Amino acid sequence: MKRDALEQALGHRFATPELLAQALTHRSHSSPHNERLEFLGDSVLNFVVAAELYARFPGLEEGRLTRLRASLVREESLHGVALQLELGEHLRLGKGALKSGDFRRASVLADALEAIFGAVFLDGGFEAARATIVRLLEPLLANLDPHAVTKDAKTRLQEWLQGRRYALPQYAVVATHGAGHNQLFEVECVISELDLRTVGTGASRRSAEQDAARQAYARVEQ
């Protein structure tokens, strides 16, 4: 019954239930887990949100559209949607991850939501995925103020570099610490033309990238 309630909330009935089961399976539980679906769902999500913003805000310049998209697809926003879906109750995690409370971790829930978007895309095609994403993000989309969105660290750094005709920074995971279900990521941000390298840490790859970008921006602004 729980899966039925989740499908109803998503607005999509899976023709292949195994895809939903995989999307809800953390790597600490078993294989196949949801990391490949997360990779796919992340791309689908970014495209759908970009297209939706383009249609809703005609004439809005690229920079503001980029910031609006970043505010919608960031971990914090996806975590909020996952909480509304009570997604933690549906996740399949290993014993260690359950004991650590990973079903409450923002990164785990946000990743699972992206995996669900990937699963819907494979199960029902692009239009099904688009409908699900817009349905779940509609409260956020409806309340967007294109002039009030603050820039995240990666965006600020990118705009600073572009304004001075420098190449964009390169991000790469250089280390992970801890068990698979409770990892700490180290990500480096490299700006070759400035001979600048920073290393950020975070509970997810994204948060570590933001930390590295914050450090880099602070240094170039000195």
Describe it for me?
The protein has 222 residues and is mainly alpha-helical. It folds into two domains: 2-142, Ribonuclease iii, N-terminal Endonuclease Domain, Chain A; 153-220, Double Stranded RNA Binding Domain, CATH 3.30.160.20. Helices cover 58% and strands 10% of the residues. A three-stranded antiparallel β-sheet has the order 1-2-3. Strand 2 and strand 3 (196-202) form a beta hairpin. The relative contact order is 0.14. The mean pLDDT is 90.
Topology:
Blueprint: H1 2-10, H2 17-23, H3 35-56, H4 62-73, H5 75-84, H6 95-99, H7 106-124, H8 126-142, H9 153-163, E1 170-177, E2 184-191, E3 196-202, H10 205-220
Helix pairs in contact: 2-7, 3-4, 3-7, 3-8, 5-7, 7-8, 9-10
Determine the number of helices (DSSP H or I, runs of at least 4 residues): 10
Largest sheet, strands/sense/barrel: 3 strands, antiparallel
Estimate the helix proportion, in percent. Answer: 55-70%
Task: Give the second-level CATH assignment, the architecture of the largest domain.
Answer: Orthogonal Bundle
* CATH third-tier fold name of the largest domain: Ribonuclease iii, N-terminal Endonuclease Domain, Chain A
SSE order, one letter for each helix or strand:
HHHHHHHHHEEEH
| Overall pLDDT score | 90
